[in-house]
């Protein structure tokens, strides 16, 4: 029995010459593949460096392309574009940094040098010039925002300084020029009533576009009506330069003002007025609860929270009786 086991073991672990050669080849291959990862960098060093350089260059190129692509996507999603230029060699396609200088300009006649002084990028200037050369025209300041590639912040910065003179055939105009037979006549100034004008009329004023006209009307509604032309200047986002320009065209003919009754208005009702904060509204109601109804609007001056400046602003919007 023991002899049989030894014979079986010897037969099992005995290899023929062909089998031994196969084992040796397998051992060599195993050693080679075990060492191959460590030898790989030395064998393909130059190729690896070339790939890394190429990838790095692609990443740098993407960093330059992505911001511009995002800007174009924003323009396409946010507003209709009038003109999208094809590639041209007229101007360099790379942006260049220009010190921005603000001044009044007409986008229909301004030169490329004028746009550069305004701080526009070269590619945007090229778009405007190409648009005009194909017969395009700007009829109002808002039209400038439709230029492909013009950033929103650039438009907001330039908007108050856009001046476009319109012929008498145009409906959207702040100044109407009458033809003269013998000599030039002074232009007629377009006047509006600040308490009855709608957004269409406000947009006829130079420098007032769709957004500003809507803001003015909304502010007037919250106030309950304007009591002076100066209040228009308090509209959010209205530059003082634009207000001073349109001020001579503002008229105050109607005095239909919405008022609050000091003896019946609640805190929530009073605080809806732009001039009356919650703390002021609460002080008005608390004083009424402690001292009884207000006899006159002037009684508000007894409150420590209401100084003379605030009283003058809110007095026209308050009454003590029906």
Key phrases:
322 residues; mainly alpha; DNA polymerase, domain 1; two-stranded antiparallel ribbon; two-stranded parallel sheet; 46% helix
Helix content: 40-55%
Largest sheet: 2 strands, antiparallel
Mean pLDDT: 76
The DSSP helix count reads 12
Overall domain count: 3
Low-pLDDT stretches are 45-52, 65-81, 86-98, 168-183
Query: For the terminal residues, how far apart are their CA atoms?
Result: 127 Å
| Rg, Cα atoms, Å | 39 Å
Secondary-structure-based class equals: mainly alpha
Order of helices and strands: HHHHHHEEEHHHEEHHHE
Oligomeric form: single chain
Summarize the structure.
The chain has 322 residues and is mainly alpha-helical. The chain contains twelve helices and six strands.
Describe it.
The chain is mainly α. The protein folds into 3 domains: 68-161, no CATH class; 175-251, Orthogonal Bundle (DNA polymerase, domain 1), CATH 1.10.150.320; 260-319, AF1531-like domain (DNA polymerase, domain 1, Orthogonal Bundle). The chain is 46% helix and 4% strand. It is built from 12 helices and 6 strands. The protein has helices spanning 2-13, 17-43, 45-78, 112-117, 122-133, 152-158, 199-202, 210-223, 240-246, 267-270, 278-291, 308-314; strands at residues 175-176, 188-189, 192-193, 250-251, 260-261, 318-319. The strands form 3 sheets. Strands 1-2 form a two-stranded antiparallel sheet. Strands 3-4 form a two-stranded parallel sheet. The radius of gyration is 39 Å and the shape is elongated. The model is unreliable at 45-52, 65-81, 86-98 and 168-183 (pLDDT under 50).
